[in-house]
Amino acid sequence: MVDPSGGVADAAALIDSTVARITPVDGTWIERARDRQRHLTKPEGSLGRLEEVANRFCGIQETLEPTAANPRIILFAADHGVAAEGVSAYPQSVTSRMVLNFLDGGAAINALAGANRVELRVVDVGVRAMLPESPDLVRRRIGNGTENLAREPAMSRAQAAAAIGVGIGAAAEAADEGCRVIGIGEMGIANTTSAAGVAAVLTHRPARALVGRGTGIDDPTLERKVAVVRRAVGRHRPSPDDAIGILSALGGFEIAAMCGACLGAAAERMPVLVDGFISTSAAALAAVLCPAVREYMFGAHRSPEPGHGALLGIIDQPPLLDLGMRLGEGTGAALAVAIVRSAVTAFREMATFDNARVPERLGPGGHRSANDHRPTRDRTTHGP
Amino acid sequence: MVDPSGGVADAAALIDSTVARITPVDGTWIERARDRQRHLTKPEGSLGRLEEVANRFCGIQETLEPTAANPRIILFAADHGVAAEGVSAYPQSVTSRMVLNFLDGGAAINALAGANRVELRVVDVGVRAMLPESPDLVRRRIGNGTENLAREPAMSRAQAAAAIGVGIGAAAEAADEGCRVIGIGEMGIANTTSAAGVAAVLTHRPARALVGRGTGIDDPTLERKVAVVRRAVGRHRPSPDDAIGILSALGGFEIAAMCGACLGAAAERMPVLVDGFISTSAAALAAVLCPAVREYMFGAHRSPEPGHGALLGIIDQPPLLDLGMRLGEGTGAALAVAIVRSAVTAFREMATFDNARVPERLGPGGHRSANDHRPTRDRTTHGP
Fold first, then answer.
1. Is A305 one of the annotated active-site residues of the chain?
2. Pairwise CB contact (< 8 Å): A111 & B48
3. Which residue, A143, A278, A280, B10, is the most exposed by fewest CB within 10 angstroms?
4. CA distances (Å), B366 to each of A14, A81, A150, B221, B359, in order?
5. What is the model's pTM?
6. Given a cut of 60, is residue A376 above it in pLDDT?
C-alpha cells in the first residue's frame, strides 16, 4: 500500500510500474468466447450487450469461465477548495457528513450495494473535517481538502501522484482479497467542477458545453461554475497529455485516486465499472496515462451531466445503464454489477445446443445446420 | 385456478371479475412517497428512474414500505401453427426443446433468474410436443399449439378467454405464495409473427413497419413474415377494441396468458415487469381490456424489434433497460428485478437528512433550509 507521505519518486515509480504491467486485452480469448456464445441455447447475439460484457471479461481474465465474484465498490471521498466559490448547492460539510452516512449504512450506495450484493469500501483521500476512527473507513489522506482551483493549483504534482498511488493500492488490495471486479465511486462537494475542468482540457471543448447542474444548482450558480471552470482552465493551462498536471491544476484527490484504481485494476486483470460523470473524468485521465486501460473499463451509467458524453468518447465505453441518476457514490456501478454478474453467469451456466439437444437454426434452404445434435465435449453445468 | 376445459362463461366471468377488481393506483400514496424521497440523503430527484419506480411501488402496494420480495418470472410456453409458413429461423420443435432446457436449468432465463435471485415458473399453455411430467412444469394446456393464423383464426374465442384465465390464475397463485412482484416471459417459435399482428391491429400501422427479424431471420423469410402478417390482419379484421377477438385471430396461447397475468397482477396490487416485444403485445391487450392495468406495469427491456416502440406507446411504460437483447423468456424482466429491488431498497433503507445529520441544500441566498437538523420521527433502518 502506498504511503501518501512517501516521496514523489516512490509514487511516480508505482505509477510507472503499474502502467508497465497493463497489457492490451488478449483478443484470442475474446474470439474463443465469441465462438462459445454461438453454441449456447439462444439465437446468435440475442443477449446483446451481455454477450459483449461476458466476452470481454473472458479476454480480461483470460479464461472461458469469467467471474464477477466478490464485487467491490471503492468509494473515494475528499473535499474541494473550490467549494468556497459557491459552485455547489450544498455546503462543504456535506462531504464529511455523507462519509459518516456511508459508515452508518444510510446512503443510497449502501442500499444499492446491499440490494446487489456488492461490498462497499470507503476511502478518505482528503476530507476536510476530522472523521472518527472506524474499522470501515480506510484512511489514505493526501491533504486536508484541495486548494481552491479558481485561485491556485488544486494540489501539487506530488500530491496528485500520491493520490493516484492510493487508488492503485486500493485496487491491488481488492485483488488480493479475492475481488474479481471493482467499481469506482466518489463523494466530494464541488467535484463536478473539477470533472468539468478535466473534460474541458481533455476534449478541448468550452466550459459552457461541459458544466452541468451537478447536485441541482440554480442558474446564477451555474453561471458562476462555468466562469470558474473557464478561468481555471485558462489560468493553469495544463497539457492534455499530462494527466498528473491536469489533476494538480484541477483536482481532486478522489478523482486522482479513481484514476489510480482504474490503472491498478487493469494491472491486476480486473474489469472496472466506471460509475458516472466524475468517475469517467478519472477513467479518461487513466487512459491518458495508459491507453490500454480502456479495454478493462465498462461504462456503468449514463449521467445527465452535459460533459459525460465527451468523456465517454475518450474511454469509448458506452454505459450499460441510463436511469437518469446523478448522485455518484458508485451507485451506477453497484447497479451495473447486476448486469455484469448476469452476463458472466449466462456465459458460464447456459447449455449448448448440442448438450441440451435443442435444434439449431434452419439453414438457408430450411435445413438444419450440419452439427445439429452432434455430441461434443463442451463443458456445461447442466448437461449430462 | 382456471380449468382450461371449463366453459366459456366461466373464463369470461373470471376476466370480468378480475377487471372489476383493478382500480387506478392511489395517487395519494405516490405523493406521500415523493415527499419522503425529498427527505432522503441525496439531491432531490438524483436517483432518477429508481425514484419513479419506488414511488409507483408505494402507490401500487399502498404503503411507504414498498417491497420486491419473492420476485417470480412466469414463463408461458406454447406453439404456433403459423410456424408452418416458414416465418422463423428455427424449427417448431425448438419450443418444446427449450421448455426442457428451462426445466434442466440450461437456458438464458435460468442463468439470469439465478444471478438476480428470481424464481422461475414455467407454464405449458399449449406446446405441441408432449412434455414429460415434471414438478417444475405447470400444465395449463389450452390446445396442441394454435392453428395457422395465415389460413384461419389461431384459436377460438373460448380458447382465448381460457388462456387469459390461465394467466390470471398464475398471477393469483404468485400472490398467494408471497410474491410481491412478477415478471412475464414467453417461449413459442413464430410468436413474433403473432405479436407483430397484434401491434398492427392495435396501432393501425402497416405490417412492414412492425415486423422484425425475431430470432434472426434472413431477408426472404422477413418478406414472407411481412406478407403473412399483412394477409392475416386483412383477412380476420379483428376490432382494435376487442382483445379476445385479436387473440383469437392472431394468437397465441402464451400471449393470451401473459395478458391475463398482467390483469391478475393488477387485481392483486402486484407490479408486473413486462419483458420485451411479445410480452408488450400481451400487456397492450391487457390495456384494451382494462386501461388502468397500465399503472401496474413496468417496461423491463427495450427490444430491437421495430414493433416494440409502437406497443410501448400503448402501455406508456418506457423500459428500464436497453441492452440490445432479443430472446424473450423473461430475460429482460429478470434483469429489471435488480433495478426495482434496488429502487425499493433505497427508498426503505436510506436515512433522512435529519436523522443522518446531513445538512440540506443551500437556499437561494446561500442559507440552509429551515428544517435543517430538526429532529423528526422519520423511520429509518440505520438511524439512532
1. no
2. no
3. B10
4. 43, 17, 19, 65, 12
5. 0.93
6. no
